[in-house]
Specification:
heterodimer, A: mainly beta, five-stranded antiparallel β-sheet, 12 strands, 0% helix, B: mainly beta
Chain lengths: 114, 111
């Protein structure tokens, strides 16, 4: 069956440091890899995504890298700020129950301390 | 551009009562999703619509859950009767191609 794992489950950094969250998936046919940010009590918001024909994508302080061979992709946040504190979910598309769908990881709780 | 709209935002009911959630997707988005998010977990897909057609309801507990998307725009998700374990946030999302945009969710508490 489908399997998505995120590490670490919690991450605490000082403001200005970098944060890296890794997502491992099981479906070798996955070709779409988004990251969502969810603040407490708010909706999940897409912050960056990548497709399988690209190895890396960057948007200001946020980047995503993909290793299709090893079946993992990572979220990189540089120069972290307190407003980056949230739960981050990876959600690769995977074939499950006969359909292609996003399978969300369990989330990584990031705390950025001033 | 307006985002995905959901109502109500909060709902408290007693077990065995019915409850319904409403979703209005982003204009022009043909695909609509209903997810359930339990506390401390990621969203899990319940059902996906392409226009009016439910194309993936494999995770929908059909004995008590039902959904409809009349005219291919708004959608309603219903639970009847609700159980204690149904307490969760019910999220609606929509997409044009692949990127999914979420609504604020309905937080359901079943007592």
């Amino acid at each position: 069956g489908e399997n998505v794992e995120q590490h670490p489950s919690t991450l605490s950094v000082q403001e200005g440091d970098s944060a890296v969250i890794k997502c491992t998936y099981s479906d070798s046919a996955s070709n779409y890899f988004p990251w969502y940010k969810q603040e407490l009590g708010k909706r999940p918001q897409l912050i960056i995504d990548i497709r399988s024909n690209v190895g890396e994508k960057k948007d200001q302080r946020i980047a995503v890298t993909l290793n299709k061979t090893a079946k993992h992709f990572s979220l990189h946040i540089t120069e972290t700020q307190p407003e980056d504190s949230a739960v981050y979910f990876c959600a690769p598309n995977m074939f499950s129950g006969g359909y292609n769908k996003l399978i969300f990881g369990a989330g990584t709780r990031l705390a950025v301390h001033p | 551009e307006a985002g995905v709209v959901q109502s109500p935002r909060y709902k408290i009911i007693e077990k065995k009562q019915p409850v319904a959630f409403w979703c209005n997707p982003i204009s022009g988005h043909n695909t609509l999703y209903w997810y359930r998010q339990n506390l401390g977990q990621g969203p899990e897909l319940l059902i996906r619509y392409e226009n009016e057609e439910a194309v993936d309801d494999s995770q929908l507990p059909k004995d008590r859950f039902s959904a409809e998307r009349l005219k291919g725009v708004d959608s309603t998700l219903k639970i009847q009767p609700a159980e204690l374990g149904d307490s969760a946030v019910y999220l609606c999302a929509s997409s044009l191609i692949e990127t999914q945009y979420f609504g604020p969710g309905t937080r359901l508490l079943v007592l």
